Every structure is written in C-alpha cells, then in structure tokens.
Amino acid sequence: TACKFMIWIVLILLPILLTAAIAGVKGAPWVPTKRGLIDGVVAELEIKPGMTVYDLGCGDGRVLKALSSKQPHANYIGHELSLLPFLIAKLRTVKNSNISIVFKDVTRTDYTDADVIFLFWMSETSKKLLNRMTKDLKPDCHIAVEGWKPVKAEPIRTIRPENHIPVYVYRASQWR
User: pTM of the entire structure?
Assistant: First the structure.
C-alpha cells in the first residue's frame, strides 16, 4: 500500500539525510573534488610504496581511487560519516584491495601510522581537528588541505591546478 511505501522511503531517506547533516556540521558537507584538482593532487603528492594515506571525509572515494591508480603499492584509508557518499565510495573501490573505506568519525581514530593525510573541511573544523591530532603524527607526515589555509605557517608546497582551488601541503611538525 501507499502508506507502507512512504514508511520505507522515510526509513531509507532518514539515515541518509541525518548522516549528511552530522557530517556537514562535524567537518564539511559532501562537495565532490573536481577532476582537475584530483589530477593535480595525484601528480604532486609523492606517495611511495608502503605508505599509508588517509582521506578524512573521503566522500565518494574518487581521490583515493585516483591516488591508488598512480601508486598501487601504498595503503589507502578513507573515512566518511555521510551514508550516501560512504556507500558510493565502497562500491567505487570494491576491487581495490589496498583501499579501505570506513564509516567512522575521524576524531576517534589513531593516525600514528599516517604518512599522508588529505582533507577538505570547513576552515574552523579543520583547524580544530589538526590541532588535536597532529601531536600524535609522525613529524614528517604530509597533510594536504584542500581549499583552506589552516595555519599561519607557510605550506611546504601549494598545489594549484589551473581554475581550481589550491591544496596546501604541510608537515605535521608545523603544528607543534
């Protein structure tokens, strides 16, 4: 009946909308990274075999998928708190054994194994997260922040593909 159908629609949409709202408040709404910017990040980030790369708020997994295509012998971990992009990321990366997508709050994770962290969050929330987590990171861990310059320190590199927002790359030691 129509009533049962509407109940199912609500039961499906409610978790999608609720998790999108929570993710938007905790970090940033889902804004897919543009192809040109991904190409620039892939070209500029020096990911070597055996490295561990995190994408905090990985959305649909497109950045991790592209990085993995360039360097398939590294380990990639994406965290996503919004249900719809999480499911898309899981489907997009199902054939990539070196990519793990987890439905997890990024503030409750140990990143001591990270060699590279990529994130695109709102300015204030990225500052808070990075201030909290960087004291536990390897000093030479590279942190690539899309769009926002979260610290006064100068980045070690700025990735600036034509017609795209910049990605600022820092070392974790710059937060200490």
Answer: 0.84
In degrees, rounded to 5, the angle at the alpha carbon of residue 75 between the alpha carbons of residues 71 and 80 is 110
Can you list the alpha helix ranges (DSSP code H) found in the chain? Answer: 2-26, 35-44, 62-70, 83-92, 123-133
The token pair that represents 47 in the structure block: 């990911």
Q: Which amino acid belongs to residue 17?
A: L
pLDDT per residue of the chain (176 residues) written in tens, 0 to 9: 778 777 777 667 666 666 666 666 666 666 777 888 888 888 889 999 999 999 998 999 999 999 999 999 999 999 988 888 999 999 999 999 999 999 987 877 888 999 999 987 666 666 677 777 777 889 999 999 887 777 677 899 999 888 888 999 989 888 76
CA dihedral in degrees (85, 124, 137, 59; nearest 10)?
10
